[in-house]
Structures are given as structure tokens and as C-alpha cells.
Amino acid sequence: MNRLIPAIAAIAMISAPVAQANELVPATDASVRIMGRTARTDGTVTMAFPGIETVLRFSGSSFVKMSGEVLNGEGWFNVYIDGKALPKVQIPQGEYEVTLADNLDKNAEHTLRIVRRTEAWQGIVKLEKFTLETGAQKLSPAPLPQRKIMAIGDSITCGQNTEYTSAELAGNQSANAELAYGWCLAKDFDAQLNLVSYGGKGLLRDWQGLATEVTIPQLFERSLPDDPSSSWDHSAYTPDLILICVGQNDYNNAYIGAWDYAQAYVQFIDRVHALHPMAKIIIMSSPMAERSRTDGTQPRNAIHEVALSLVQQNYLKKGETFVTPIFMNQNNGTELDSHPIGPQQQAIADELKPIIKKLTGWNSK
């Protein structure tokens, strides 16, 4: 009888179901397509700039999960599966694992697309991996569009409060970079997009008038805007078109002479042009600023527009025509907030579209 016990135990061990690990896809895997400025360290992708798009194609899984860590705030994402929009996802601070899609057809191919809605000061998101069902197959993502746009700016470019249409939508949830004019243009022209933007920042000073805070030219050099030790490899993304919308914060609390502002702007454009000499550059006045006043006084935006004209003249005198100033119409939000909401962001894009067509020869949808 005693001799049978080991045999019975062995049979039990063989018969017991063996738990199989899920399929893990590291964020830096070749099958994960990421568009936008990020920092990559030890297989992790860190997202601080807004509007970053991540795409994963797969088959053989009824779900897809995302995991990592959120620092200094929270993360908000738009989520799409097979082109269908799902509810936006909020990820609180700390380590996370979130199911992005469930109850999928295992026998079909699926495309997951997520877009970061928020920006650096609202929370930094580390993406470590995606999790699929055991036996799932990673599929090669579709190639990115050939055309490339870079949009440099402040909260307008970030898409801050683009969904702030009622008091119930206050807070980070109202930010949606995918509704900002840069994303509108990228979709219209079938182009890639990098948003190099940060709310409250300016060319020389921030929205409070502080020249001691990080400026747009400084964060332009970084992969993580609040980390001075981070460095962006400018060769990783070569734009055909660069949109620069700065000045709203520079002129928010203080007067800056047009000539002084133009000189600083030229220094920044010289740097951008040296890195991307083939790109057309559009410099925009602020869509949030007033164009005129009925009382006969001159608004600060008029001084900003003079500065933009001086910038262009600086290059025209040298026979260089790559800089085009655009004096934008006013689209300054609602009674709830002065930031342009979604339809106003589209109006900004529509205003830019004919100029872009003329400068680049691109056709839009």
C-alpha cells in the first residue's frame, strides 16, 4: 500500500492544470509604435509632453492591459480599439495596471491606439508594458505618415481645457491634446505630429511674469520638459513644418518691447532652423489675445504682432523666406475659461490650413 502513494502523487501532479503566463509586450518592443517626444530608459517609455500616440496591433487575445507608473499627478488617455473610441481612461498616481479593452474577438486582428491627453505639470506617465492573453500574436503596426509636423507652444498648443464646456468637466479631465490645432492639422494633412509644448511657458517668461522659470527654448532641448538633465535627440524627428505659438504668457503680466522680443525670437528660430534647415516655420500670434479695442488703445497683442513682423524682416533681409508670421483670429474659449475649446481649436487649424497648403504644397483631406 505504501508503494502506491508516490505513484498516486505523481499522477496528481501531472493532472494538475499548469498556469500559463500572459503575453508581455515591453513598451520599447518593435511592435509598439510611439509618436511624440518621450524618454526611454531600461525598457520603459516616459511620457511628459502632451499628445503622444501609442499603437499596438495584435491577435489571439480577448483583452489588452497597460501597466507602469504615474509620477507627480495623474494620466489621462484617449483609447481606441479598431478605430472605435472607448471611454477616456484616468490613471491615478503610483504604480498601475489598467485594462484598456476587454471581451475582444480572439480570432480577429485588433489595433489599439491611445493618445496622451494631458501634459507634464498634470502628471508624468511611465509605460512599462502591455499585457495580452497567453498565445497572443504581436503584429507589425502600420507605418507612420511621411509628412511631419512639429507644434511648439504653450497651453493653447497643449490642448488645455479643450473639453471644458461645463462646470462638471473642470480639472485635468478637460484637457485633450487630440483636439488641439496641431492634432487637427495632422489628421487633415495625414502627417505625424510632435507637440513640444507646456502650459504657462513663454519665450522669455512664464504666465506670472517670471523670467526664472523654464522657457520654451529651454524645454525645446529636452525629452522631459521639467528635467534639465534630459536631452532630446533632434535627429530622431525631422519636421517638414514647424508651428510656433508663443507670446500669450510673455505678454500676460508685463510689457515687452517689440524689438527686444523679436531679437529673442530670432535667437530661438536660428536654433530651430539650424537643426531643421528644410522645415517651413510659421510663427503665430496668440489665438487667445484680442486683436483690437473699441476704446482706441493698443492691445498687447498688437505689439506681439509687430515683433513677429520684425522677425520675418530679419530673415527677408538675408534673402531667407522660411519664416511666415500669421496674425491669428481670436478664439479665446468660453465664459468658463479663456482657453480655446475643441471647435475653436478646429477653427485655428482651418485658419492655418490654406497657408500651410501654399507653403508646403500638401493636400488635405
Textual characterization of the structure:
The protein is an alpha+beta fold and 365 residues long. The protein has two domains: 23-139, Jelly Rolls, CATH 2.60.120; 147-360, 3-Layer(aba) Sandwich (Rossmann fold), CATH 3.40.50.1110. It is 22% helix and 28% strand. It is built from seven helices and 17 strands. Strands 1, 3, 4, 6, 9 and 11 form a six-stranded antiparallel beta sheet that branches. Strands 2, 5, 7, 8, 10 and 12 form a six-stranded antiparallel beta sheet that branches. A five-stranded parallel beta sheet has the order 14-13-15-16-17. A hairpin with a 2-residue loop joins β7 and β8 (84-91). The protein starts with a helix and ends in a 5-residue tail after the last helix.
Short description:
The chain has helices spanning 4-15, 155-158, 181-188, 216-219, 258-275, 300-316, 342-360; strands at residues 23-26, 32-35, 39-41, 44-47, 53-59, 64-71, 75-81, 84-91, 94-101, 109-116, 124-132, 137-139, 147-153, 191-197, 241-245, 280-284, 323-326. It is of the alpha+beta class and 365 residues long.
How would the blueprint of this fold be written?
Elements: H1 4-15, E1 23-26, E2 32-35, E3 39-41, E4 44-47, E5 53-59, E6 64-71, E7 75-81, E8 84-91, E9 94-101, E10 109-116, E11 124-132, E12 137-139, E13 147-153, H2 155-158, H3 181-188, E14 191-197, H4 216-219, E15 241-245, H5 258-275, E16 280-284, H6 300-316, E17 323-326, H7 342-360
Parallel strand pairs: 13-14, 13-15, 15-16, 16-17
Antiparallel strand pairs: 1-11, 2-5, 3-4, 4-11, 5-10, 5-12, 6-9, 6-11, 7-8, 7-10
Helix pairs in contact: 3-7, 5-6
